[in-house]
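WARN retry 2 of 3 for item q-0093 after timeout on previous attempt; input resubmitted unchanged.
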Amino acid sequence: METFTQVLPIISGLLLIALTYLCIRTIGNNTRKVNKNVAPEPSGAWPLIGHLKLLQSQTPAARILGKIADEYGPVFSLRLGSRRAVVVSSLETIKECLGTNDKKVLSRPDIAASRYMVYDNTSFGLAPYGPYWKEMRKLVMSKLFTSQCLEKFKNVRDSEVMNSIKELSVWSLKNRDGMSIIKLDKWFEQITVSINMRMLVGKRCSEGNNEDTRVKEAIKKGLQIIGAFVMSDHIPSLEWMDIGGHIKTMKQMGNEFDGVIQKWLDEHIEKRKENDLDSDQETDFMDVMLSTLSKDAEIFGHGRETIIKATTLILMLTGSESVAETMTWALSLLLNNPAILKACQKEIDIYVGREKWVEESDIKNLSYLQAIVKETLRMYPPGPLSAPREAVEDCNIGGYHISKGTRLIVNIWKLHHDPQIWPDPFDFRPERFLEEHSNVNYQGQNFEYIPFSSGRRMCPATTFALRLVHLILARLIQGFDLSTPMGTPVDMTEASGQSLPKTKPLEAIITPRLPRELYQML
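OK item q-0093 returned
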């Protein structure tokens, strides 16, 4: 048998041939486009990998691309392995991309995570443009995220928030002086996972339960691997090498998730057989999907069970983290701006009082709280870089030719920090949404403010996410005085990667501020 030392030169030679071929092909592609009016390309591209090296940094990718835009303009191109991407970051070019050309840039790139973890591109969020995606978009928008459906699960949100507030009050009252330090980022994470799980499959994810802990850890690991850099997503011919072992991990995670979700689905099907449920008795989203799709339903080659499992998985993965991160940033900003925190408490005291808890129906009267949430989402959008789109036909953006198959990346963070639109963009000033930007909403029609993106691919769960954020923040701010340990400012350092999570945990001192009987009746 040949030793590894003997085989190594052969492997190295084959790799060299493959890499040389890819380099030649990339150069050939660029040469063929020389006559097109293509967007400028920053210097620093490496052979084979192109500009991928620029994004491997401790600095968030949105900030890196924002600096490149300062030098090369609001539309520039990148070579990401053998793929070409165009980054847009100004109001005019984003409006052109997500407005004028929305139909032409509707697809999603084919990535390993979607193939190996999310049922081979079956999820509506990651599915490529085509008849299947169109049908799934209609199903999701008409059945899962309607006002009627969200209202049906209002009691779930209310009870989970109140249970979590009770846990906080018990924790804080353990000390004789009524004060306690708590990691609020973990609290936000726990409450959002619990609400999400109950709405999706009717199960509460509680602390101390081994199965629930495994699910939470799997969600966290799944999100990490989805956000990981996978070389073969940019150089498909290298997939067989599985550089970094990500594909192997994705397959393992896909099997693990499928086992859990299949078990939940079987339980739901069995329960429906026993109880003969109708639409008025639907207790979670999985019930809604089972009622909507007949037993033999098939949508363009995808069966009922696969569709339900893929939808459950993508909502499970994306429905908690971004909400928890938004609330973590919001409270971090408030703790560093105590006058704004006090003003928000005063508003709640005026419009709700201190003798009862805030309800969802009260939020419409709390304009300052709404402005705080808007300003948080401006400064820290949950997707600072939009999920990549892919052009389904040739188009023009910013005067540049965009070829079919090009990936489009919208730098929402850069847009939200444009001083021409947002004076003093790095200052936390909720008042801007009560004054000069009072007409701005979340619907993606005001292109200067698109925290949930815009167009046909914008986040369908926007209303659900906002209901959670407003209710949880309102009750936390109403129920407790909050300050930082030793009065030190909150560290606002952002972690690297595609999203903008905080690097350090959010710790705060909490002290109940309402009559004690309100906490006891929870």
